[in-house]
Write a structure and sequence with these properties.
FAD/NAD(P)-binding domain; Enolase-like, domain 1; alpha/beta; five-stranded parallel beta sheet; 363 residues; 3 domains
Length: 363
């Protein structure tokens, strides 16, 4: 037990609680130091009235009014929890629109259920430039364009949900020639650490510290690939087939390309882009469970039928996305996928309908 750092090629040092250093030699080093919540300048934490997601799950009291800084997946998930517990929520977003990281069509329908139908006030295009813990907590809001202070809020608590930053400091990375990019360790698709175009031998990195899809299952997949390659394999990861989910009620999920990304690639590679939508309100299971607000957007290549991406909002979206993730991983096309039989009545028929709609557009 102790604090580890690299001490040169194939050497790792560990400093124990008594300050004693021990040096270990090894054949390979895997850096898997993860990430920590990112806290912008001007925000002071006391871990009770102003806190990050790490402390939010351990909170011993329930604020009547809580402000959440950020409207990404972390902010949305906690807004879901706090409103269910009876809290009033104010969501503060620095960008122009709330939920900026989600597909616009998904955001439009999800906002109605997750924000507008609940006790959530939203403020966008403003920075929380100063937050002072206390009773009450004081929040200074600055206009994103004019840079002028426009409002001061007083709330019971603040959750800072502004993303995560890599744990790459104090690892002595420079001793083996590793240069981080905004703190992230560059790797290739085999998880080998890079310095520019060069591979640094015997050093691998996995998880959030690589800055790829910062998700637990991505880290697990990267770890498996790193070990396979350490053992003599030649395996690469396919990030386009890794799904992501936001565990609200209902859920949001996605895999592969966004529509904007797909349009750029279709123009560059000169193929026709296809987009279809399948609605939960036409699904028997969703209607029976009184959860018919939902949408699946499927993005595909019209020229060869290959699935490029999908975005879902609705009941059990996190489970449904796996089927489309598998299709991308297997490089399947919508013609063959449209022939697969789905159980009736199940939510999976939302996916089946999307495949059939897409297949009907293939020339």
């Amino acid at each position: 037990m102790g604090i580890g750092r690299i001490e040169g090629n194939q050497k790792v040092g560990v400093r124990d609680k008594n300050g004693i250093d021990k040096i270990f030699t090894c054949k390979n080093i895997v850096i898997a130091t993860g990430s920590s919540p990112f806290v912008p300048r001007g925000i002071t934490l006391d871990n009770r009235t102003v806190f990050t997601s790490d402390d939010a799950v351990k909170l011993e009291w329930l604020p009547r009014w809580i402000a959440i800084i950020g409207s990404g997946y972390i902010g949305l998930e906690f807004a879901d929890v706090y409103t269910a517990l009876g809290c009033e929520v104010t969501m503060i977003e620095a960008l122009e629109n709330i939920m900026p990281t989600f597909d616009p069509d998904i955001t439009k329908i999800a906002k109605k259920s997750l924000i507008q139908a609940r006790d959530i006030d939203t403020k966008s295009n403003v920075f929380a430039t100063k937050i002072t813990p206390g009773c009450p907590v004081k929040i200074e809001l600055t206009d994103a364009k004019s840079k002028e202070v426009v409002e001061t809020l007083e709330v019971d608590a603040v959750l800072v949900a502004t993303g995560r930053s890599p744990n790459s400091n104090n690892l002595n990375l420079e001793s083996v020639g590793i240069e981080t990019v905004k703190g992230f360790i560059p790797v290739d698709d085999q998880m080998r650490v890079k310095n520019g175009d060069d591979i640094i031998p015997n050093i691998w990195a996995v998880g959030d510290v690589t800055g790829k899809l910062m998700l637990a299952h991505t880290a697990a997949a990267q770890g498996t690939i790193a070990v396979d390659n350490i053992c003599g394999g030649n395996v690469e990861i396919n990030y386009k087939s890794i799904p992501a989910a936001t565990f609200t009620h209902p859920e949001i999920s996605s895999v592969g390309l966004s529509e904007v990304e797909a349009k750029e690639i279709s123009t560059k590679e000169n193929f026709t882009l296809g987009v279809v939508k399948s609605f939960f309100k036409a699904n028997s299971k969703a209607l029976a469970e009184l959860e018919s607000d939902g949408l699946l957007k499927l993005i595909f290549n019209k020229d060869n039928g290959k699935v490029l991406g999908a975005h879902i909002f609705g009941l059990h979206a996190a489970d449904l996305i796996q089927e489309i993730s598998n299709a991308i991983s297997r490089n399947q096309d919508v013609i063959e996928l449209s022939k697969e039989v789905h159980t009736h009545p199940t939510l999976s028929e939302v996916v089946e309908v999307a495949y059939k709609q897409a297949a009907s557009q293939i020339k």
